[in-house]
Amino acid sequence: MTKDTWHQVKESLKNSVGANSFKNWIEPLDLSDVSNGIATFHVPTNFMGNYVAQNFGDQILFQLKANGADVSRVSFDVPTTTQNGDSTATTPAEHTTPAPVETSKSSDVPGAPIDARFTFDSFVVGKPNELAHAAAKRVAEGGPVTFNPLFLYGGVGLGKTHLMHAIAHELQTSRPDLNVVYLSAEQFMYRFVQALRERKMMDFKELFRSVDVLMVDDVQFIAGKDSTQEEFFHTFNALVDQNKQIIISADRAPGEIAELEERIKSRLQCGLVVDLHPTDYELRLGVLQSKAEQYRQQYPALVIDDGVLEFLAHRISTNVRVLEGALTRLFAFASLVGREITLDLAQDCLADILRASDRKITVEEIQRKVSDHYNIRLSDMIGPKRVRNFARPRQIAMFLAKQMTSRSLPEIGRRFGGRDHTTVMHGVRRIEELMATDSQIADDLEMLRRSLEA
Question: What are phi and psi for residue 153, nearest 5 degrees?
Answer without folding.
Answer: -140, 155
